[in-house]
Amino acid sequence: MIQNSKKILVTGATGKVGSRLIPRLLQLGYDVRALVREVSNASFLISLGAELAVGDLLDSNSLTLALNDVDIVIHLATFYKGATEDQSKMANIDGTKILAIASIEAGVKQFIFTSANRVYGNNRGKRVTENDPTSPAGNKFAVAKIEIENLLSNVFKNQDITFCTLRLPLIYGDNDTHLKETIPMLNDWSPAKRIQLVHHADVAQAIKLAIILKASGVFNITDDAPITISELRQLYNFPDTPDELVSDSWEMIVSNWKIREQLGFRPIYSTFYTAVDAGTL
Questions:
Q1: Does the N-terminal or the C-terminal CB of the chain have fewer CB atoms within 10 Å?
Q2: Residue 273 domain flag
């Protein structure tokens, strides 16, 4: 373990990503503070060595306390499932703006936001890069992510804070059941439909590199090879659906070349099969 003097505040600390990221940050020697709504749901983080800050993104006073002496904010918190449109806006848009302003006032030096590769939309006809325009129309989740990206860019403009956006695909690994639970919901997708994935270990790797290299701008995070829905169904023992044509063979297929070239990112699990063989699902 390398001792690091930087203090990190993680939002969404008890979620699927946060609960797997924080142990890795602690192993790297970072001083981690987790923003939580209730201590009872985060006792496992205390046992790992994390500090808890009880607060809410919509409560600026609680954020002022949570951000005390913080150098880096990793903003993972998101609220969509089971939320009304107004609830989603308050939690995701309004809450992020309050957090961003509070971060500036607290003297935070680096802010990392996790977005999604769905923001590119479809009908691109190629593997998408960060230079391609976003077109998330029709997907409320992606529309909100772009709105947050733009909001943060505007708030941090001309401020002494390094802002980085990491656009993620479906995440899996570390006993996360989300991918397995999602597959049955994709029965209207052709067996030949390809999707990209990334292991929790590689999300942590990307965040670590962004911190160390003080990365700014937008980076796609993904493994090196898309996998078909048919393969995932087989690996998780789900029946396949009848074959049909894929309407957009490049939808959600993005390039990770920029983060490889600029930050030295190399997926630990370069394909889903690598993780299967390593027993890290």
A1: N
A2: no
